[in-house]
Design goal:
Elements (H helix, E strand, L loop, with lengths): L3 E4 L4 E4 L7 E6 L11 H18 L3 E6 L6 H9 L4 H18 L15 H13 L3 E4 L2 E4 L15 H6 L15 E6 L14 E3 L3 H11 L3 E7 L3 H16 L4 E7 L2 E3 L3 E3 L8 H15 L7 H7 L2 H9 L7 E3 L1 H25 L23 H19 L4 H21 L10 H20 L12 H23 L3 H13 L2 E6 L2 E6 L1
Parallel strand pairs: 3-4, 3-9, 9-10, 11-13
Antiparallel strand pairs: 1-2, 5-6, 6-7, 7-8, 11-12, 14-15
The structure holds zinc ion.
Length: 517
Amino acid sequence: MTLRVYNTLSRQKEDFQTVEPGKVGMYLCGPTVYKPSHIGHMVGPVIFDTVKRYLTYRGYDVTWIVNITDVDDKLINRANESGTTVEALAREMTQDYFDNLKTMGVDTIDRFPYATEHIDEMLAMISKLVGDGFAYPLDGDVYFEVSKDDDYGKLSGRNTDEMQAGTRVEASDRKRNPADFALWKKSKAGEPAWDSPWGRGRPGWHIECSAMSMKYLGETLDIHGGGLDLMFPHHENELAQAECCSGKPFARYWLHNGLMQAGSGSKLGGGHDRHGDVIDEQAAQEANKLAGSKGAASVKELFERHQPETVRFFLLATHYRSPIDFSDERIDETDKSLEGFYRLFESFERITGDSIYGLSASTTHDASTDLSACPEEFRKELEFQRSRFTEQMDDDFNTGGAVGTLFDLRRTINGFIGDRKLDGGDAPSGENIAALRASVTLLKELAGLLGVFREPIQQAGGGDDQFAGQLMDLIIDIRGFARKNKSFEVADRIREGLTAVNVVLEDRPGETVWRRN
Ligand SMILES: [Zn+2]
């Protein structure tokens, strides 16, 4: 088995070889914490959490770092608008991000460095870049001079014209080249500021990722991940700064995940959308559109309509490099397809008296589930599916293929239960129980690599919400009927009654929508 990964830098799949044998240093660009996460912000974490689980399964010792951008233009603006401080807003939104990661089952991140706690490291890098002639100070700002870096553009493959089109126009008249980007920015009055050799200011957009990733993972990372929207200019700039500073390759493998798209094909940013203002605004609009008739843009609100496990399964059913078409209907389909797994788990419990959630499954391939208790034909099928699963994941983390294999595995186990009439018939034999337990443990092992079926789902969420949805449809229908017949008293009683239980109705052209308050 050889693990192969698609490297954006070479634009091809390569054999995976780490800097240090057996160890992987992985960095993912984290969020700018100025507003609640939407589902697009969870794509990268879910994918790279799965990548880490799989690399660990393959025997690697993985260190995974995700930064928190807690100083940024957007954060400053949003704090001013809402009459709070940058610190308070950042703290609140960081907690929102952490809560959402936890709910999505992303719990393998080793460290979250904060930008504001690494100003010294950034200043050291900027000073070196200025000293080595790659950067120049200008009226309290410091800019990286792209023409001094022969390799600039190698990650995104952009030529100079395209690069210029992708940069902001601010201060371009003062810069030596419009594509030069800020490493340090002079702070305006009232903005967060730190002392520097160039005056009071704050770090630019890109330097923090280079400084923090190298601090914790060394000068050459094994994997640098992020959404496709961050490839240019953010990753291109991270790479330029880092390599001009260290003289070494910054990252062996650049993995870019596809973005979530909704309806019109607009993107829901995959990474920390601090750079792509356009993408970000579209994302916000699309997220509102996505909310559609039932209301909501944030991850928390999405979880009121769908089980987090369903959402995670949904995200992984698509290859990570492909765009993900997001819609409530598609998540509902995923939900239906998961029913078969939950029924199998119930059946397993009836037969063996054990819950799948109590089984301890291996997290490494070397200690993979012992299938010797299974009759030969059954065992061979299970072994085939296990190797099929790892082949898929070895092929550039093809989680979509791996998800397909889980369905095959479910079918095989259901076949065993059906053939031997284990569920509902006479008491099953000890041999059959042992074989079933081994097969379900294998299912749990492989599903665990995708981060699903680790804990019982919260019934209060999905099941009840569906029921609530049906009831609300009925109530809205009756209220519409009452209004049509001018029974406004009845219509008002319905609205008041719903308000009392924290349900809000909103009349829109052609439809009435509801949400919980
Ligand atoms: Zn970054």
